[in-house]
Amino acid sequence: MIPLSVPHIKGNEWKYVKECLDTEWVSTAGKYVGQFEDSLREYTDAGHAVACVNGTAALQVALRIVGVLPGDEVIVPTVTFVATVNAVSYQGGAPIFMDCDDYYNIDSAKVLEFLEKQTETRDGSTYNRISGRRIAAIVPVHVFGNAARLEDLLDTCHERNIKVVEDAAESLGTAYTEGRLAGRHTGTVGDFGCFSFNGNKIITTGGGGMIVTDNPEYAERARYLTTQAKDDEVRYIHEDIGYNYRLTNVQAAIGVAQMECLPEFLEAKRRSFESYDSALEDVEGLQLAASPAYARNNHWMYPLRIDRQAYGRDREALMRDLQSKGVQTRPLWQLNHLQTPFRDFQHYRIERAPRLLEETLNLPCSVNLTQSDVDYVVQALVDE
Ligand SMILES: *Cc1c(COP(=O)(O)O)cnc(C)c1O
Description:
- The protein is of the alpha/beta class.
- Helix content is 37%, strand content 16%.
- It is built from twelve helices and 16 strands.
- Helix 3 packs across helix 4.
- The longest helix is centred in the C-terminal third of the chain and has 32 residues.
- The protein is globular.
- The protein starts with 12 loop residues before the first helix and ends with a helix.
């Protein structure tokens, strides 16, 4: 069986975890938590990094800190893992769903059009003309490691006091290479960026997340809220309601070891991407989805685009066939504006997303994928 995406634990993970166990520093205090934060902060060149139990919790905390209150609205893409939208719900916020562009990311042109046509700004905030509610934030997602096009959006959101929380769960290692954001890592251009180290992500801590921000007050608040809002640790004084969201030392130890391997992982992801890409050149009706030319991609996922007419099979048939040949693949997530909990919320001109959902299948993309794995998958795609 060739799985879709599994962890690769071949570096110093054992050594660092053993040290945690030998010294009995297993909980949220311990040197690796700080080291993991430093390592991610330095790598992404973010101002501050706060470790967190997982990416979903990171998003929730970020949304709370930028001021999403019950009844506020938050702009989200319909194409994303449900956690993005759940985090909005945890804050009592209402999602407004947007379409995607050709890279599976939020369609920034449509967001700008929506803001132009359907919202108004008063008293320094932006209000939805239809619902009358305040639009407090937007959560662009860098889907599959593709950098979302944020250049134009950032200024408009700033002018309209719409906070930008980047869901960079899938895009560690992706950085802009062109335009005003050139050189900046995804996750570091908005008010907050949130990373995930779930088992299927480019690096993993088993479960884990990171909140990054350039704003020192936001960072301090994130640290405070993720550690039970302790105002006096000794006397147990709490001025606010916090969360038990801090990463443990054992998880962070794995994270430090994984960060050491990140450059090598990125190289492996790129190599397999190129192998698939060139092997698929001769296959009628199939090609890997293009990634944005304005960024260096981490190639976390390998979305395959299926031209059903030319290829002769649809996504569902192909997925079933590959499964029977021992190749695990996955489609896009069900569009979130159609999911049961979110059906009644507003969505704006969702046109491209349904088509991409039908045309896309993600191919195995683990860091430890070998050339012969790639050859096997491609052969399975070619054979009837
Ligand atoms: C994985 C993921 C999350 C959630 O991260 P967890 O660490 O699993 O909580 C959020 N958003 C996106 C886009 C993801 O892929």
